[in-house]
Design goal:
Elements lengths: L5 E5 L5 H11 L7 H9 L3 E8 L2 E10 L5 E9 L8 H15 L4 E7 L3 H9 L3 E6 L9 E7 L8 E2 L13 H13 L7 H11 L13 H10 L2 E7 L13 H20 L4 E3 L4 H9 L3 E7 L1 H4 L4 E9 L3 E5 L15 E4 H7 L9 E7 L2
Parallel strand pairs: 4-5, 9-10
Antiparallel strand pairs: 1-2, 2-3, 3-4, 5-7, 6-7, 8-12, 9-15, 11-12, 11-15, 12-13, 13-14
Length: 369
């Protein structure tokens, strides 16, 4: 007798009851609630695939498609106990990877319990590699391995600048956190901690922004790096004070202009080159190939829908993407999602300008000789 064919298709609202029952059957902890499953069926930045035999739901796979990036994350994978060992998980994974690639995502990442040797074996056979580990990751305190696979072919000619990752500890210290990653990528003994993070922020802040704490000025970050023994230069596409878009207070504008002028004068005194130019990806690639670390000011709108200036560290570039270490972890994110984040070149060119003035800025670090 012929076995029924496995049917893989996108989940629809009518699948909710069966998905919820399968979730309860497969997991004893870290379960997705019925409300979460309903959300993921309809959410535009997720892909929930079902696996059915003769109309019976026997498994599902859920990918989280990160907005503004080319990174997908396997959020959950389940196969009913009665149908395990039949290759259903592998077929689900393969189809999820295919769909992710078709949608333009480059990588699929996942976490798996270290004790789950069967799942780890499956992922390794499918081409996933271990690149990190989380301690006490799950509710039962089990550790997790972090694994990744490129689901679209990338060039072997990618120019990389490997860097340790550091998570900013406040909502306003992305600049110092990115600078710390940059310095540590050149000298591994320079990572530091929150004390250094806040110290750099005090040195580099513009004092005010539209609301809340001030952002970090590229000149200020370059000066902070130079004080710590690194050579630095800045590329910025304006000669005037920055971050004034949306600042209504005349007093704040006057103070921010004064801070800008002070930073500029000190850069001139310390012979820190300032290039008035738009960001050129060819130049970024050249800097990376020379072993320099490159910080970029981006707008976060394409990442999280918020129009805010944000500093990140560029860790690589190829003909398809740039790769970023982002020090900020959103509430719905995992730190794994913020390391070596692939951003398509076309997306990056839209992210690299901020505000009505289309401000762009880079800070470049290299060894001081």
């Amino acid at each position: 007798m012929l076995q029924p064919a496995l049917v893989l298709e996108k989940a629809v609202p009518q699948d909710l009851n069966d998905l919820s029952a399968l979730e309860q059957q497969c997991f004893s902890a870290d379960k997705l609630s019925r409300r979460q499953l309903k959300h993921y069926i309809n959410f535009e930045h997720s892909l929930l695939l079902t696996a059915k035999l003769a109309g019976e739901l026997v498994g599902y796979g859920l990918l989280w498609l990160h907005q503004g990036t080319r990174l997908a994350r396997l959020y959950s994978l389940a196969v009913s106990p009665q149908h395990q060992g039949q290759g259903i998980a592998r077929q689900l994974m393969s189809e999820l990877e295919t769909k992710a690639g078709e949608f333009g995502w480059l990588y699929v990442r996942l976490e798996v319990a270290k004790r789950n040797t069967s799942a780890i074996g499956l992922y390794k056979r499918m081409g996933y590699r271990v690149f990190g580990e989380y301690q006490n990751y799950y509710a039962d305190q089990d550790d997790a391995l972090r694994m990744q696979k490129c689901v679209r072919k990338l060039s072997k000619q990618a120019v990389l600048h490997p860097a340790l990752w550091y998570q900013q500890t406040t909502e306003f210290t992305c600049g110092p956190a990115s600078l710390m990653m940059a310095m540590a990528s050149i000298d591994s003994g320079c990572m530091g901690d929150q004390i250094l993070e806040l110290q750099i922020w005090r040195e580099a802040t513009t004092i005010f922004m539209t609301a809340g704490h001030g952002g970090c000025h590229p000149f200020g970050l370059a000066l902070a790096a130079e004080r710590r023994g690194f050579a630095a230069e800045v590329a910025v596409n304006t000669s005037g004070p920055i971050f004034l878009d949306g600042v209504r207070s005349a007093q704040k504008k006057q103070i921010m202009t004064l801070v800008h002028e002070q930073f500029q004068q000190e850069c001139e005194y310390r012979d820190i080159p300032i290039h008035q130019t738009d960001v050129q990806l060819a130049q970024v690639e050249k800097w990376l190939s020379q072993g320099s670390a490159v910080l970029a000011l981006i707008s976060t709108y394409r990442l999280n829908g918020k129009k805010a200036p944000h500093w990140v560290l560029i860790t690589g570039i190829d003909e398809l993407c740039l790769y970023l270490n982002d020090p900020d972890v959103e509430d719905n994110q995992n730190p794994i999602d913020c390391q070596q984040v692939p951003i398509a070149r076309a997306d990056f060119e839209k992210m690299i300008t901020f505000g009505a003035s289309k401000l762009s800025a880079l800070v470049v670090l290299y060894e001081s000789f």
